[in-house]
Amino acid sequence: xxxxxxxxxxxxxxxxxxxxxxxxxxxxxxxxxxxxxxxxxxxxxxxxxxxxxxxxxxxxxxxxxxxxxxxxxxxxxxxxxxxxxxxxxxxxxxxxxxxxxxxxxxxxxxxxxxxxxxxxxxxxxxxxxxxxxxxxxxxxxxxxxxxxxxxxxxxxxxxxxxxxxxxxxxxxxxxxxxxxxxxxxxxxxxxxxxxxxxxxxxxxxxxxxxxxxxxxxxxxxxxxxxxxxxxxxxxxxxxxxxxxxxxxxxx
Length: 251
Hints:
Elements: H1 22-26, E1 41-51, E2 64-73, E3 78-81, E4 86-88, E5 94-96, E6 105-112, E7 116-123, E8 126-130, E9 141-147, E10 156-161, E11 168-175, E12 178-186, E13 188-189, E14 201-204, E15 209-215, E16 220-226, E17 231-238, H2 241-248
Antiparallel strand pairs: 1-2, 2-3, 4-6, 5-6, 6-7, 7-8, 9-10, 10-11, 11-12, 13-15, 14-15, 15-16, 16-17
């Protein structure tokens, strides 16, 4: 039987659903206005070609995606088709200006049949960069967000490495066309097996960007800051989806 596709949402960032609204907080799109200087630029992105060839089901079903489609200004639409050994094991592609050049890049989660998940970046020309695969089949990562977390003029991307097992916040900096890890901290998570949403995001309440997740036992909403060297965390409230939403909204 052919794989049945999940319905793609009309709005990219729904409220705490698999196409979760907090992704809009996670991956701010305010930079779109600055893109007019580019001749060719990514306008939007979506997944296509649903497939059940990677039977992990961590997000609630066995359907993942075989293709990333990029709509590009002044160029034909770009279709990035993965080999049979890989899928996009993900919610939605995330648009963010990773290299701060005024054009959006696309941040995705790719999973390999034997090596598990990795973070990857694409642009209007195709593949840009990726970090190493986790190293084991059926091991996944859940994004927290992207921002210049330490104010050094470079973008960092944060995610939870194996949110059901390792429960480790990892931060990777994009610099000179590559990703390099700059910090990690255990004891944090943002996803439970089978959920079709991710419970995390990045906020800025006036003192710089902060990462918002749950603690490893789902007892507290946790706010974490990165100072360029280490990650400092503190509990903000007892955990619930509404409490998480309030913390992300700086309430």
